[in-house]
Each structure stands twice: as structure tokens, then as C-alpha cells.
């Protein structure tokens, strides 16, 4: 299974002090040496971490594919179209969110905007992907528009897992709607894995390549990595968090080992 390492949180740390250290670009060589297959970054509308300067340098200097996540924003799409990364993954954005909270909405006019944006990037020979909830409806909409990849949102699975097996329920960040009996959480967890499996099969039937990501870490990644039709995982926050204690290269190596 391929590993895309999301390095946004290195830029988060930099922006906390509004200086030039740490530089996300420094992570590229270490990630490659540790066995990463792809670098993933998210150019958000509010530029809260990665900015245009980062995107340009990372695409220029990375010797492995770069996957740029972005919203359906004409200005950002034009910037990325000029920089020509290997892939663009369209994700939903809300200014008030801490991180991406769900998959794309395919209702009009968003459907039309997505279709236009995909064709714009295809004309520039840039691979496209949609970040979607693991539903058959989202798979079919993705196929209709004509992307090559879909990335399944694993946030629901990760949240249930954390409330069931971790200590999240005992922290200020506990998820209220999941603060329920463990027996119910266990059933929900099984269903969330099955939803990912079903979505991967549906995508494969339509000839789409399947990635997955969001909330995956060293403890919960097994169930997702064991779904054979998922070819790639994009993982960021947990790798950067572990690197504080083990070093970035070692943190990436540990995840590569788990996936293999």
C-alpha cells in the first residue's frame, strides 16, 4: 500500500510563531528516505498553514509525486494549474473548521463547479481526485465527473475507534454523540469498516483508483490498510505528532512498516 505523507502540520508549527522555521520543504528528503510514496499538502483558502510559496518549492524539489488538496476555488485552482503538481484532490472547506470534516457535496451548483475544475486541470495534464464520504452516491458522482481517483473519508471510523479504544471520552475533546455504550460503538465500528470496504468495491467496479485518509494513526490504521482495494493512505497529523518524540524520518518509517 502506498503512503502519502501530509506535511501540513509542519507549516502549522511554523505559523504558530510566524517565522520561517520549521520549513516544510526540509521534510521532503527525509520522507523519501523513510519510504514515503507521495507528499500531500493542503492549500487552504485562508492560508492557515501551507501557502503558495510552499507549494511552488515543494513541487519543484520533490522527486516523488505531490498531491495538493484544495477547495473548489477558482483563484486557488488557477495557481495550482500553473504549478502542475502530480495530483489535485478536491476537498470541502469551512473557515471555522479545525480540519476537514467530511466529504464533498455534489449538489448543484457544486457539481457544476467540480466538473469545470476537473476539466481545467485535465487540460493541464494534472491528475484529479475527490475526497468523499464512503457512499455509493458519492462514488457514482465522482465517476460521472471523470476523476481518476477518489479518497475515502475515514474520519467517522477514526472517531469511533478513538472513543471505543482510546481515552478520548475522558478528555475535553470527547465527541458527545459518540459518548455511548461500548457495545453500540463496537457495532458502529464494524459498520464503518464495512462502509469503507463497500465504497472501495463500488469505486473499483467503476474503474476508479481508491485512496483513504483522515484521522488515521499507528493504532487504528490496520483495519483500513487491510482493505485490498484501497491502494493509498494519506496520513499527516499522527506522523508529525510522533515525530516530536522520535524524529520525522523514524515516524515515517514506522508508518511505512505498518502498511507493508
Model description:
- The protein is α/β, with parallel strands linked by helices and 260 residues long.
- It has a domain at 2-154 and 233-259: Alpha-Beta Barrel (TIM Barrel).
- The chain is 48% helix and 15% strand.
- It is built from eleven helices and eight strands.
- The protein is globular, with a radius of gyration of 18 Å.
- The mean pLDDT is 95.
List low-pLDDT spans: none
CATH class of the domain at 2-154 and 233-259: Alpha Beta
Question: How would you classify the helix and strand content by structural class?
Answer: alpha/beta
Name given to the CATH homologous superfamily of the domain at 2-154 and 233-259:
Aldolase class I
CATH-scheme architecture of the domain at 2-154 and 233-259 = Alpha-Beta Barrel
**Percentage beta strand:** 15-25%
Q: Which whole number gives the mean pLDDT? A: 95
Give the C-alpha Rg.
18 Å
The geometry reads as globular
- Helix run count: 11
Amino acid at each position: 500500500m502506498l503512503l502519502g505523507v501530509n506535511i501540513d502540520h509542519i507549516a502549522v508549527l511554523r505559523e504558530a510563531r510566524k517565522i520561517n522555521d520549521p520549513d516544510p520543504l526540509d521534510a521532503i528528503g527525509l520522507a523519501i528516505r523513510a519510504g514515503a510514496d507521495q507528499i500531500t499538502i493542503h492549500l487552504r483558502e485562508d492560508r492557515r498553514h501551507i501557502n503558495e510559496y510552499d507549494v511552488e518549492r515543494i513541487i519543484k524539489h520533490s522527486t516523488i509525486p505531490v498531491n495538493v488538496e484544495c477547495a473548489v476555488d477558482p483563484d486557488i485552482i488557477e495557481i495550482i494549474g500553473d504549478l502542475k503538481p502530480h495530483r489535485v484532490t478536491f476537498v470541502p472547506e469551512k473557515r471555522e473548521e479545525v480540519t476537514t470534516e467530511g466529504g464533498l457535496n455534489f449538489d448543484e451548483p457544486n457539481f457544476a463547479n467540480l466538473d469545470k475544475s476537473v476539466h481545467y486541470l485535465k487540460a493541464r495534464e494534472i491528475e484529479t481526485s475527490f475526497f468523499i464520504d464512503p457512499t455509493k452516491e458519492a462514488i457514482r458522482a465522482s465517476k460521472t465527473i471523470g476523476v481518476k481517483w477518489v479518497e475515502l473519508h475515514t474520519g467517522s471510523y477514526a472517531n469511533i475507534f478513538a472513543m471505543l479504544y482510546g481515552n478520548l471520552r475522558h478528555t475535553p475533546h470527547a465527541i458527545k454523540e459518540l459518548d455511548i455504550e461500548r457495545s453500540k460503538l463496537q457495532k458502529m465500528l464494524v459498520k464503518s469498516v464495512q462502509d469503507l470496504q463497500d465504497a472501495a468495491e463500488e469505486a473499483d467496479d467503476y474503474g476508479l483508483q481508491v485512496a483513504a485518509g483522515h484521522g488515521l494513526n499507528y493504532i487504528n490504521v490496520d483495519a483500513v490498510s487491510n482493505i485490498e482495494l484501497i491502494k493509498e493512505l494519506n496520513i499527516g497529523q499522527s506522523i508529525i505528532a510522533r515525530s516530536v518524540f522520535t524524529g520525522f524520518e523514524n515516524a515515517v518509517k514506522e508508518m511505512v512498516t505498518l502498511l507493508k
